[in-house]
Amino acid sequence: MESIEASGKSIDEAIHQALLRLGKRRDEVDITVLQEPVRGTFGIGSKEARIRATVRSTPTTSGAVITPEMADAILGPSSDDDELYDHDEMYLEDEADDEYEDDEYSDEAEEEEEEEEATEEEHAPFLASSNFPGVAAAASAEKNSELPFIETPSREDVEITVDVLQHILRYMNIRATVQVRSTSPLTLNIHGINENLGLLIGRRGETLAALQLLVNLIVAHLTGHRLRIIVDAENYRVRREENLRSLALRVAQQVRSYRRSIALEAMPPHERRIVHLALADSADVTTESIGEGDERRVVISLKRPGR
Question: Radius of gyration (Cα) for the chain, nearest Å?
Answer without folding.
Answer: 23
